[in-house]
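Protein in question kept in full:
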Amino acid sequence: MPLSKSSRRSPARLLAVALLAGGVLLAPNALSSAATPDEPVKVATPTPDSPVSGKLVPAVRGDAARAAAGPQVSAGVLRRGESFSADRADAARTSGATTIVPWSGSLHVVWGAFPTVSSIGAQATHTVNPGISIPSGNPDVVYAPTLVPSGKTCIEVTTFYWQGGNGVGAWDWCAASPGFAAVAWIDSTFLSTYTAPYQGLPAYEVLDVQTNAVTNSWTAYLYNYTTSSWDALFTSADTAKLSETHGGWSMFEVYTEYNPATGEGYYCTETYGTQYHAANLKIKLGSTWTALTPGNSNVTPPGSVNSTDFGCYGLSFTLQTANSHWQVTH
C-alpha cells in the first residue's frame, strides 16, 4: 500500500551541508565535531569496486512501487522510452524565444549528457532536493537526474518530484510491461543513510551495472554511507536488450503544463531556488571505467539552452565539467 505523504517527506537533519567548502568535503576531524550521534560522519568515496553488501535498499517494490509512483509519473517515463529516436529530436529543440508563449497539453523537454557508445555500466552522483513540495493538483513531473547507461540496460534510475512525493525509483525496461519496480522515498532515513553533502546539497551515489553478460542481468545499487557498501535497489535481466547498441542518457527532464495564473509551467513556482546536479559521470566500456567526455558523449541540445523552452523563466544550464558534470539551477 502506498506510503502517506507525511511519511514520504519527513524532514532530515542536514547539518553537514553547511560544512562544505567549494564542493569538497572538509577534513574528517572538522566534520566529526558537528556530527550528531545518530548521523555518522560521511567521508567515504565510493567506487564501482566498493564492497557490495548483499542487502536491499529499503523501498516499496513490485505492484506497490507502481502504485506508489502513480500513473502520472510512470506515463512520462514510458512515453519517452518508447520513442527514443523521436525524443532525441524533441530534446534538441531550441526556440530562441525570450518570452513564454502559452501552450496546451503537456510540454516535454530534456537537457543533459548522452553517451554515444554502448556501455555496460554507469556511476554518478545525483543531488536531491527534499524541500520541493509540489501541491495536489499540479500536473507536472520533474525527473532530475534520470540515468540510463545504454540501450542494453534493463534499469533506469530516476529522481522524481511530483504531487505524490519525492523519490528515487528503479524503472524496469526488461519487464513484459515496463514500469517502476522499486521506489525509495526521499525521507529522513534515506537522507541519513544514502546521501552525503555535495556542493551544498545532499547527494546519493548510484551504480547501474551489467552483472552477467550472458543473461544480460543488471543491478542498480545505491551507496550506503553508514556501512560503506553498495545496497541493491533492483535487479532485472533480458537478453533481447543486447541487440540495442545505442547509448544512454543522464538528463534533466520535465513534463509540464501551462499555468495561466503565472504564465509559466506549473512546476516553476514549486521548484524555484533549487539545483540539480549529475556529477562524476562515468561509464564502463569492457573492463574499464571512463568519465563522460565530449569524445564519448554529446550534450543535447548543444550550445546555449533557453530557459523558456522549458516553460519556465530563470533556469540556467551549466556544464561544470564537460560532459561528466551537468547542473541545472532555478
Q: What stands out?
A: The chain has a mean pLDDT of 85. Helices lie at 5-8, 28-32, 63-81, 84-91, 188-194, 267-270.
